[in-house]
C-alpha cells in the first residue's frame, strides 16, 4: 500500500540558509499535518492543511511557512535557519480529519550547522 | 485539550503480555482515545483507537474505563519489535493530535 512520502530523508544546511521539505500524502487523503521532533523530545504539531487550505496552526515559527498544492502534496519552507531548528520533521496525512488516525511519513532529518 | 499522564518507562519480557496505562481525566465526552507508537528514528505509527467500548485489532487491545478517565493498551505477547515509545492521545475536536510524553517500552529477550 502507498505510504506518505517525504523528501529529502536527510538535509544539512548552514545557519541563516533556507530549506524546503516536501510531503506526498497517501492518494485520496485530503489533509496533511506537519510535526517537528527535536532530539529527545516528543513530536510537536506545526501546521495542517485540509483541501489545500490551512486548517490549523500550532507552534510554528514565523520563519516557517507551508502550503498544500493542487496535487495535495505539501511543502514546508524554513528560512533564516537556526541551530535549534535541527530536528526530525514528520508529515502525516489523513482522510476527512483525524478520527480514523493519521499515517505518518518516515520524516526528514534536518541538521543545521 | 485533554491532558494525559503515562509512565515514563516500562519493561516487559518477550512473549509476555504488557499493559500500558494512561490517565486522561480531563477528556471530553466526544474525544476519541488514540494510541500511537514510535520506533527509534521512525515516524509515529497508529496502533488503535476507541471511544467508550473496548477495542481489538491485530496489533493490540484497548480497554477504556467506564468513566473514560483512563485507558490501557494491551499487547498480548510482546516481541522485541514492540520496543517503542507509546503515546496515548485524546483526539481533540476530531482534528489533530497533540503528543504528550509517552511511555518508553523496553522488551527483554
Whole-number radius of gyration of chain B? Answer: 13 Å
Question: In DSSP terms, counting alpha (H) and pi (I) runs of 4 or more, how many helices of chain A?
Answer: 0
Give the N-to-C terminal Cα separation of chain A.
36 Å
Beta-strand content bin of chain A: over 45%
Strand order of the largest sheet of chain B: 1-9-8-3-4
Global structural class of chain B: mainly beta
Average pLDDT figure of chain A: 94
**Count of individual beta strands of chain A:** 11
**Strand portion of chain B, in percent?**
over 45%
Query: What is the subunit organization of this protein?
Result: heterodimer
Number of DSSP helical runs of chain B: 0
> How many distinct beta strands of chain B?
9
- The succession of helices and strands of chain A, N to C, reads EEEEEEEEEEE
Summary tags:
heterodimer; A: 113 residues; mainly beta; seven-stranded mixed beta sheet; four-stranded antiparallel beta sheet; B: 109 residues; five-stranded mixed beta sheet; 46% strand
Write a short abstract of this structure.
By secondary structure, chain A is mostly beta strands. Chain A contains no helices and 11 strands.
Describe this protein's structure.
The complex is a heterodimer of chains A (about 110) and B (about 110). Chain A has about 110 residues and is an all-beta fold. In chain A, strand 7 and strand 8 form a beta hairpin. In chain A, about 0% of the residues lie in helices and about 50% in strands. In chain A, strands 2, 4, 5, 6, 9, 10 and 11 form a 7-stranded mixed beta sheet that branches. Chain B has about 110 residues and is mostly beta strands. Chain B has a 5-stranded mixed beta sheet with strand order 1-9-8-3-4, with no helix packed on it. A 4-stranded antiparallel beta sheet of chain B has the order 2-7-6-5, with no helix packed on it. Chain B is globular, with a radius of gyration of 13 Å. At the A-B interface, strand 5, strand 9 and strand 10 of A face strand 3 and strand 4 of B.
